[in-house]
Amino acid sequence: MSQSYNRGLVEDFGRWREFSAGMWAWVFHKFTGWVLVGYLFTHIAVLSTALQSPEAYTTTIQSLESLLIVRLLEVGLLAVSVFHILNGLRLLFVDLGVGISGQDQSFYASLILTGAIVIASVPTFLAGVFG
Amino acid sequence: MAEHYSSFKRGGRRWLWQRITAAFLVVVLAFHFFLLHFVHHADEVTFAMSQGRMQELTYFSLMVLFLVTATFHGVNGVYNALINQGLSGTRRKATKVVLGVASIVLIVQGVRTAIAWAGGIPI
């Protein structure tokens, strides 16, 4: 017989100290999802400068990329994307019934791998911004 | 109460399509990041380079499919998250219409931009 646990509502963020790994995974997946869908609309808006003229597009992108804050936000975007991808893969497997017993560990692995990939990518993402 | 933390109704089609688009997006989003940040660098972007890529039918169609699946996955995710938070009735219907219109605007704008880069559909 399968066990069931009453962990209460994950939407009740006030009790975050009691959250299990799976509940954190759910919260992080939601948060990163909101960021990514917001970014998608912003991304298309910026790329749309190509409709104005080739020069407007090139100037816009190069001006944005010369700003340190934009580069740092891009590192943040990478972190959010990598976590959403890795945790998304974890969800696909869990939904297929693969690795359910190890789902806490796979969440921790997603976090660690995200951190490692992001740290390793920082030099590439900041290249050229300091002059 | 047995655990069932999901934004989706069990067995629903919105859940299935969210998973199908996810499987595609995992690969294409990783490719997109890798190509535009590691193979090429973001500060080297010019209209001519984007144009060169977009004039290839394979790349053009992959990017249009990427836009459509990412829009669906993102907007469907938001819609289901809101339902999960208790959205119902007229507000749910209104949200569905607003998100549907936003998706269409985003896709149309994205495809127009892709066509501007490629100088037409590259067939």
Automatic annotation (TrEMBL), chain A:
It is found in: Membrane. GO terms for biological process: tricarboxylic acid cycle. It comes from the Archaea. The keyword Cytoplasm does not apply. Its main location: membrane. The keyword Heme applies. The lineage of its organism: Archaea, Methanobacteriati, Methanobacteriota, Stenosarchaea group, Halobacteria. The gene is sdhC. GO terms for cellular component: membrane. One of its GO terms (molecular function) is metal ion binding. InterPro entries: SdhC_prok (IPR039023), SQR/QFR_C/D (IPR034804), Succ_DH_cytb556 (IPR014314), SuccDH_FuR_B_TM-su (IPR000701). Keywords: Heme, Iron, Membrane, Metal-binding, Oxidoreductase, Transmembrane, Transmembrane helix. This is Succinate dehydrogenase subunit C. The chain crosses the membrane at residues 23-47, 68-86, 106-130. Its EC number is 1.3.5.1.
From TrEMBL, chain B:
The keyword Repeat does not apply. Keywords: Heme, Iron, Membrane, Metal-binding, Oxidoreductase, Transmembrane, Transmembrane helix. InterPro entries: SQR/QFR_C/D, SuccDH_FuR_B_TM-su. The chain crosses the membrane at residues 20-39, 59-82, 94-118. It comes from the Archaea. GO terms for molecular function: metal ion binding; succinate dehydrogenase (quinone) activity. This is Succinate dehydrogenase subunit D. The lineage of its organism: Archaea, Methanobacteriati, Methanobacteriota, Stenosarchaea group, Halobacteria.
